[in-house]
Amino acid sequence: MSEYTIKTDRDSLIISGPELGRKTREGKTAWNLLPAGGERFLLLSQDAENSMAGMKDCFAKMSIEVFGSFLIGLIQRNFTGAVSVDMGRGVKKILFEDGDFIFASSTLIDDRLGEVIYRAGMITLEQMVDSAVQVDRTRKFGQVLIQNHIFSSADLWEALKLQFLEIFRSLFFAKQVYVQVDEGLVGNVPKVIFEDTIKIIKESSSIGMVFRSFLSRVHEKTEVIVNRNDHDWVEPEEGTFESDFLQLVEESNHISDIVKKSKLRDINTYIALFNFFTKRKVTFSMDDQRVNFANNERVKKLKNLLDMYDLLLRDSRQAFKGANLVFPKEHLLQFVGKPNNMAFPFLYLGDDGEVAAESVINLFNHCSESDDQFELVRHQLKGLINFLLLVTTDLLPGDAGYDVKDRFLELTR
């Protein structure tokens, strides 16, 4: 670590050391002194300050892992107030009351209610544009939707909840954040989220980890393919975000083309690609599927379950082949496609019933840092194994299915 010398008197402070003489291209000092609350000041480089969108007072810079623990700490002390997070080109704010989430806001256009519910397929582009022009000082966007009979009050409630989750989860897509905390009453703000706050934080943290892993494995020349041949493909309704975005993907060759043509901010374009990928709407030409999780105990346990499923799958397929029957892969695909407790469907199967390679990586990322998410995935994999045993014993003639079950139980004791 470099050594710095500090000299001070009543009216001045002198800091000397390496790097402090750095200049900008214009010949000015590359450093700025910013207040950091109380009697503290932060000496910040011009590049670092430029990456901040306007929060200058009482802030802290922290890794995203520390940020998650920091939020849990606020909840445990029943914090009331606002936590503002600088994302580089905009500030997102989370409001708390007695340790519970209340509301979220953002200065980014992509986080506006209309944009969020358009991307979610809750309204069409035409409905979003028509409603936006009717917004004024007395009517908010949500009120326009209700008055135009596009939404019911229940629909609007779900939309506001979705907006909160979209804004909050996006905080965990960054590697580090600038955070400002303001304690005190937050005013007359409607509470839109009633779920367990710590659960939301842990779930968002694991989703963020999967997203950052996804970003590390794609690059500008990665090819994106619309997955129209998928077994459960449904043609999106014309005029929806899904239809418009997938059309953009088909008209582009690589991720760089999609990002360049997209009307979303770059990071939100990647998020859209990630979301459509988890829904199996698109696939990617990723060169390297290998990720090192060798020292993670949760992942080791998960790998054992995946190996057990693979063992049972191979024996079951062989038994169906020996009985001159078609292996019922559609049953497995339908089972995995059922709603579950995970925010994103990270478990999905390939065409032969195997757990897809990219799904394995996503599952490992999802569970590597969270016991809660590990338990969700573990129960889902156990359910998949038991369902395959049930299908095998029900559909194979005679004792053939029970022979498969007995061999499996013998090998996995």
Query: Count the strands?
Result: 11
Helix content: 40-55%
Structural class: alpha+beta
Q: Can you write the helix and strand succession as a string? A: EEEEHEHEEEHHHHEHEHHHEHHHHH
Radius of gyration (Å): 26 Å
Low-confidence stretches: 51-57, 339-343
Strand adjacency order, main sheet: 5-9-6-7-8
The major sheet is characterized as: 5 strands, antiparallel
Beta-strand level of the residues, as a percent range? 5-15%
Mean pLDDT: 81
**Structural shape:** globular
Head-to-tail CA distance between termini: 53 Å
Count of alpha/pi helices: 15
Describe the structure.
With 413 residues, the protein is of the alpha+beta class. It is built from 15 helices and eleven strands. The strands form four sheets. A five-stranded antiparallel β-sheet has the order 5-9-6-7-8. It has a two-stranded antiparallel ribbon with strand order 1-2.
List the helices and strands and how they pair.
Blueprint: E1 5-8, E2 13-16, E3 31-35, E4 41-45, H1 46-50, E5 59-63, H2 64-76, E6 81-86, E7 91-97, E8 100-106, H3 113-119, H4 125-132, H5 141-147, H6 153-170, E9 176-183, H7 197-217, E10 224-226, H8 241-250, H9 255-261, H10 266-278, E11 282-284, H11 297-322, H12 329-336, H13 357-367, H14 371-395, H15 400-411
Antiparallel strand pairs: 1-2, 3-4, 5-9, 6-7, 6-9, 7-8, 10-11
In short:
With 413 residues, the protein is α+β, with helices and mostly antiparallel strands.
Descriptive terms for the model:
two-stranded antiparallel ribbon; globular; alpha+beta; single chain; 14% strand; 15 helices; 5-stranded antiparallel β-sheet; 413 residues
